[in-house]
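Chapter summary example: a protein plus 26W.
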Amino acid sequence: MPFQDQEAPRPQQHEPEQQAQDTQPSENRAGTSAKDLEISFRNHMTHTVGRPLENSSILDQYHALAAVVRDRMMDQWLETIENYKQHNVRVLGYLSAEYLLGPHLENALLNLDLRPQMEEALKNVGLDLATIAAEEPEPGLGNGGLGRLAACFMDSLSTLDVPVLGYGLRYEFGIFRQEIVDGWQVEKSDKWLQYGNPWEIGASTSYEVCFFGHTETYNDDQGLLRHRWVPEHTVKGIPYDTPIPGYQTRTVNRLRLWKAAAVDSFDLSIFNSGDYMGAVRQKMESETISKVLYPPDEQIQGKRLRLMQQYFFTSCSLQDMLRLHCMRGEKLSTFHEKWTIQLNDTHPSIGIPELMRLLMDNHNFSWDDAWNVTQKTFGYTNHTLLPEALERWPLDLFGGLLPRHLEIIYEINERFLDDMRSRYPNDDARMRRMSIIGEEGERSVQMAKLAVIGSKAINGVAELHTQLLEQDTLHDYYETFPERFSNKTNGVTPRRWLMLSNPCLVDLINETIGTRWHKDLYGLRGLEHFADDKNFLARWRQAQEGCKSSLAKYISQNLSITVDPASMFDVHVKRIHEYKRQHLKALHILSLYCQIKNGTLKNPTPTTYLFGGKAAPSYVMAKLMIKLVCSVADLVNNDPATRDVMKVVFLPNYSVSLGQHIYPAADLSEQISTAGKEASGTGCMKMMMNGAVTIGTLDGANIEIRKECGEENFFLFGLTAPQIADTLHAGYQPRAYYERSPLLKEVMDGITSGRFFGGNSATFAPLVDNLLSWDPFFVLADFDSYDTVHTQVSDAYRDTNAWGRMSLLNTARSGKFSSDRTIREYCRDIWKLPVG
Ligand code: 26W
């Protein structure tokens, strides 16, 4: 191998054919040595990318590298499928309208344990892994928490060797790219597929999905009354499969995302009639179904295309599972024994009447037999209590698009209410509350109620959230079948969110307590022994400062703002929403600004306030909150009195890869939602794992984080959910809080008077008016408590050892928040699936 003895490997100036035969002995496409990987990389540059290495772009190198890594997954991928077939396993079908996967390359290298060899292979050809990895476009097929949770779950399911088929939509355009122009969010389309996607494999099967039309009845050859749907419009569903490798296991599961296409993409007759656009209209219309992800998070839009998206991917997925079931020689009447399907919120809940339709209309099942299979197949996870996020479809829209499904829903509802009437005689109010058909205002199909009635199991995503579901939102159903309800507190994958994001800290942890924690995060408890070890705490802090410096470098390079890595990094990153209260934090920073300016706050703890998050494009108040944060940044960052002790930065285009950069650098994790509003939160878990200390309310998973890390290692403030309910009940007067809090008064008046933002003040009038007159998320009520506790935080941060101890204990006690623990619970209690 002439190649061996060269010093610094640099791409050789060989003629291609010359290069091929002498440098490339037979390639072992599954080989994992640095040599194997180097040869494969060279071959893929030539045979897959088709460009000589020496004048290849980083994007070319990325595509070649992705091909090399994908090769190493293919054997395991086919093996996994074969293994499932051999053992005729029970399989989970995970239906989610969103998957916020994040970049694949480095995660795959971690899970396949190939990183060191790949780094060496690339060094041998004079290239750098991190530089190439940064070229990967992020598949942003999700909005926020729900989508990312689905991605963490897929990683844990593979790592725990659980047979799963993830199903979703292959949006051509994912979540928009966010730019901040003069403090305002501007949305840009996300062309993540413009250079193709090396991580997906188009599969040959496809399914037809129907829309519109009418239904009719007929008598079948046994004289039985049958229903059939006569649709008006049909589209084709084409699957694209993405391999999901587990960590340190040979399991590679499949994520199947559907693309919509026209049944016949070109109508020659229309073309010959000269209507060229008409000839491709069907193609255009059909493809719009999987064109773009709906960006509103936790706000229903009631758009028909959204329902078409939901029905499209759900129908394709169910048809696929029924086909796979029959291919294994199984009878459809046993479908629920071999398949368990989880509904990731109500977005795929149309799947319940769809399975009924497929079994009855296409496979002649009786109603009862179909219902028996259906009800025993589905599980439903609720992710939000916000009334405006609970999906309900106007009857005319729903019936026009899916006439047969509305018929089936009416019958599900009738049969259910008949049953309820026998249980609760003469309780019409309860019947109205429990009916799937909402009568208030416009009559509608309430998807959460359909999901509950059609599922064997219902769960919330954190203890408080599940309690509120059982005591409040779904109380009537909980009272009727409590055994179906359970809590499954969320979790996050420690592979991407600790091992991949924070290699420095992980090296220190491995060196200190070994690597057992890699497969069981509770193993991190071993770190508790070092809580009072000053040397260890110094090394712990050092590792964190490394992360803070690299984020500071990113901020100066991309935003030309200088932040001090020695300052406290106070991080508030998540979707922008009033209940997440980014405006509470902005108002508090303004009050600190006032106190420094008027000298009441003499020696503030130098702090860098880092914000990030996207607002739904139609959510005006959320966009105003971004403008407020950016205006506060301009004010304090440029004021000589404050700029050396306070820096405010809004990081544009918050995403999975940016999160991987931010979480390891966080000292303080802001989880300040109004108690009772954040179902769980998962960013809180990622920051805890990386040693951030949380300031938060008793909301969602914060409560369990505080329980795990110890009250003394958590900064609690604010009203509790019951106190919020009582205050609301008693009649909440936000203006009263303004009147009696000098700090708050100075800040609110400073906004309206123009003291802070000069001519821009009018801009914020809607926000100030909303807070003073209504304040639905109790920002003013919690302000003083927040200020008090934040002062404690600033003081605590000055004692580096005490803070280091709190930071270490948060990581040490974050074991519960691994998505491996969450998945184990789902497998045990709901899916009845063995864990590897
Ligand atoms: C119909 C529009 C719509 C779109 C998305 C309604 C609701 C949603 C999602 C349910 C919103 C969401 O992402 N919820 C978040 O889910 C996370 C995972 O369980 C939780 O950790 C967050 O608390 C919750 O806000």
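Key point: The radius of gyration is 28 Å.
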